[in-house]
Automatic annotation (TrEMBL), chains A, B:
Lineage: Bacteria, Pseudomonadati, Bacteroidota, Flavobacteriia, Flavobacteriales
Name used for this protein in its record: Prephenate dehydrogenase
Presence of keyword Oxidoreductase: yes
Ranges where the Prephenate/arogenate dehydrogenase domain occurs: 1-286
Keywords: Oxidoreductase
EC number from the UniProt entry: 1.3.1.12
Length: 288, 288
């Protein structure tokens, strides 16, 4: 079985590593517009060969793991190029636009729109981890638009890799993911920015930082090339979550300014229920 | 050697566990206004006995690990009660007020104002971890006000436990810690609140949360009883950090609303230097 990985970074590379484990006979070729990444992926044994345009027609499965602006641009012509029986899976963090650009494509039934909720703050093939997807949620959008046989093939693969499946429409996906993923990244980036700005004059400040700071600011290490197009494609939802987040921060600040310490206590106590909620989130052992 | 731990929760309990390791002959008594915590600490072997008022006069070292409002209230009378040679160490996350309330105390020289930068989002004696303080920074304020022999004793103990020492004045401590600790907690609490508010109607949302959300929201599990008085005592600094943080979030939101994606990219790229900065932060293996 020939499998193509387009984009051999953290997401594509980790998927390739899991494929090698569950399908030891698969022949995995990689494609990447960064020749260094392709070379590294070959050296690390993540892929077996570098693919050519003609490889796509022969592939049984193609996994598209590139930034969401590039994915939206490339997917229609990719579908033109692949074989009639090829399954094309994407892994983008936004789903409305990608589903829209192929909605009338003659090969729409070859495509399955996915968002595996997995990753780390690192990027590139060296960041690829075997087992990254184990126990993680994979959100599939508009499943009914994928050919039934290709659905079966994809679900069998996801099940072997150990992913949990959830079905959602693209609009609901984009709205909810803005809260539990996109907002976290912005809050983390802006926290990092606020502290770095202060640090310009006060270099000692980071010597005082503990694991709490490290944890809240971890996502500020993430790739701008990956995240800028995500925020662009999900702008309306992200603007709304940011409005609500800023409003909550303003309200907290006002309570503190007014010396309403009972109010401050209650805000935190109410939010403590996140403890119970978080117990339900599957975590990769390597990241926990 | 008799050692007293006042407050046998996460901070006091972890300190007791490290003491047992580096001073196996020490007799550790605990005091806590929560009888359940005292009972649990005894059962877990964190302390050897429950202390009485009279125990304090005989103690060589007393470690005060209670919420900062209680610490400010209790420290003067604690100093009245301890022996002439007793070393009293606190572990509060704010340092200005506690230093101020004992500045003219006849036993000021028995006291060392400390802030070990260590902890987790959990609390109580069951959260106490051996090795929590290993490799962590301990900030000592107004060291010159502690008797020289007691300084020596404290530094020897901290060195055996494996802590790095930094000296600072209380005002600088409170200003800087607002950025690298207090602000992180508020950003995390408000992130949790924003998502929980949305979740009222959309229970599915947490099924979509990954380890990135878990990481940024981890501190929202923290104890309101511990954090409310910290924010109260460090109000001016926390208000200032919140003002700057909200301003940065507003600016990011405006860039996104204006479709200034180059600006968004640059904001994230500039903040990526947090990668280098974080490499310098010592992390507890158990939390990393």
């Amino acid at each position: 079985m020939k499998i193509g990985i387009i984009g051999v970074g953290l997401i594509g590379g980790s998927f390739a590593r899991d494929l090698k484990r569950v399908l030891p006979d698969a022949e995995i070729f990689g494609m990447d517009n960064n020749p260094d990444h392709l070379k590294t992926a070959l050296e690390l044994g993540i892929i077996d060969s570098a693919g050519k345009g003609s490889s796509l027609a022969e592939a049984e499965i193609v996994f598209l793991a590139i930034p969401v602006d590039a994915a939206v641009r490339e997917l229609p012509s990719l579908l033109n190029t692949v074989g009639d029986e090829t399954l094309v899976i994407d892994a983008g963090s936004t789903k409305s636009l990608i589903c829209a650009v192929v909605s009338n494509h003659p090969k729409r039934r070859n495509f399955m729109a996915c968002h595996p909720i997995a990753g780390t703050e690192f990027s590139g093939p060296r960041a690829a981890l075997e087992g990254l997807y184990e126990g993680k949620t994979n959100i599939i959008c508009e499943v009914e638009k994928t050919a039934f046989k290709l659905q079966e093939k994809a679900l069998d693969l996801f099940s072997r890799i150990g992913m949990r499946i959830r079905y959602m429409n693209p609009e609901a996906h984009d709205k909810h993911i803005a809260y539990v993923s996109h907002l976290s990244h912005i809050s983390s980036f802006m926290l990092g920015k606020t502290v770095i700005e202060k640090e310009k004059n006060e270099r000692d400040i980071f010597d005082m930082a503990g694991s709490g700071f490290e944890s809240t600011v971890r996502l500020a290490k993430s790739s701008p090339a990956m995240w800028t197009p995500i925020f662009e494609q999900n702008r309306e939802n992200v603007l709304e979550t940011l409005r609500e987040y800023i409003q909550n921060l303003e309200a907290f600040r006002k309570k503190l300014a007014d010396d309403d310490m009972e109010g401050i206590y209650r805000e935190m106590e109410d939010t403590n229920k996140i403890r119970e909620i978080l117990k339900g989130i599957p975590l990769n052992k390597k990241e926990a």
